[in-house]
Amino acid sequence: MKLIKKIAAIMFAFMMVFSLSTNAKAESGSQDADTKGTITIDNAIDGQDYKIYKIFDLESYSYDAEPKDGAYSYKITEQWKEFFSNRAGKDYATFDNATGYVTWQGDMTDARAAELAKAAILFAKDTTNGVSAVSVEPSKESNTNGTVKLTYSNLDLGYYLVDSSVGALCGLNTTNSKVNIKEKNGQPTVTKKILENNTEKESNSVSVGDVITYQMIVEIPAGTEKCTLHDEMKGLEFHGNSHDSNSDIYLFDGATTFKKDEHYKFTKTTNGFTVEFTEKYLKSTTTERHVVISYNAILTKSAVMGNNGDANTNDAWLTYGDKNTVSTHSTTKTYTFDFPVFKYTGDLNNNPTELSGAEFKLYSDSTCQTEIKLAKTDTKNNYRKYINDNEDTEANIITDATGRFTISGLAEGTYYLKETKAPDGYNKLKDAIVVKLERNADGTPFMSIYQNNKKTETINVQNNTGSLLPSTGGMGTTLIYLIGGVLVLGSGIVLANKKRAKAK
């Protein structure tokens, strides 16, 4: 009996259940043929399939008081003879061909028990072995934590294997006709974060063309089957391994040297990728997997731009189990912003005159040495941060007939807008205009625009004309010129005579 209890403890740890039940009310004696048992699975995952396989029949038992040590007699079931005669089970238990009685073999170490547990579940799942589950519909009761309680009633007493579509279940009880199993599989989960300066973030802002590093933590409970990570991006494009350029993506769990196609399969999709964990990897251990996955992505020209709170999302989720159950999604948000500019003369609040032909450049430093190259994106005088590819063309910022232009695709931060050429007849601005873009202090994604530390919705740039010197027209102007010339000439003659007089 002590051997059986040891097996029970071990199998709890390795996501398996062989459930043997006896008459709980009897203090001594043998099995009552009319006694039936129940198996209750608490914390069961709603929507998953749970299958119960009967391994051994309980022939008889005898025990006295607690802890109910005693003797138990089992007989092999027909469907499991192959497993315990010619397959992996023969190393752990044997049976008499004539009588069917089962005898445990050797010492049951933790490692050997784990091997037996994995082998039994694989044998049961292989349809060619002809093993069928017990045909019993469970009653279902909802729990307050979102799980359910499943109760399988009217079962013949015996030794049972319980499996779920997520993976193998855990629990073993050999001393009671009412067996309670705590579902310990849990559900695979994924958590995605943006990694900036070794800090994890759920959202950020970048400029078009900037590289973003993402990190995901995938929790894979022991026994999980058919686990695939899905990653879908909007306004973003996959840009490879954040650690090693020789592989598509970086994976780490502290124990595995991940090899593509051996431990996982990586597939690029139209707007993201998938990582399918192989059966070899999922079956390689009976402990929970804590997988770190990281990669880079680029904010593309198709990104959502503007200050109204729209985000470029990066969404991750898992599918797992026989039913491809979908996990909770984990999503990050990336923002990129714009600011409009209005060039005018006169009174801004009283019919200002729009000025065309003014030219500007945008800089990232106060000395205006580091220019931010821009590309014109349409006929409406919209400009976006330039990306060095075959499609973009660098362009100078020039105000149109309405005196306006817009610059987009910028991260939050401080920029310097410098006028390089004023409209004809107007004075060029001496100093650059300081433009500050920042997300609202309350944490909302909306952008605030500041012009020289004053909050605004549009960067307003005023030009003034140069000074116009007075003049007269027609003959009067000519006479002034003539008189001026005579006076200059006369002055020259006087000076010359004075010099001759001194010389004499």
Write structural notes for this entry.
With 504 residues, the chain is mostly beta strands. 13% of the residues lie in helices and 40% in strands. It has helices spanning 2-13, 81-85, 110-125, 279-282, 474-503, and strands at 18-20, 36-44, 50-63, 70-76, 93-95, 102-104, 139-142, 148-156, 158-164, 178-182, 189-196, 199-201, 203-205, 211-220, 228-233, 236-238, 250-252, 264-269, 272-277, 289-299, 312-320, 325-326, 330-335, 337-345, 353-354, 359-363, 374-376, 382-385, 397-398, 404-410, 413-421, 433-439, 447-451, 454-456, 459-462. Strands 13, 15, 18, 19, 21, 22 and 23 form a seven-stranded mixed β-sheet that branches. Strands 11, 12, 14, 16, 17 and 20 form a six-stranded antiparallel β-sheet that branches. A hairpin with a 2-residue loop joins strand 11 (189-196) and strand 12 (199-201). The radius of gyration is 41 Å and the shape is elongated. The N and C termini lie far apart (146 Å). Mean pLDDT is 81; it is low at 1-33, 170-175 and 474-483.
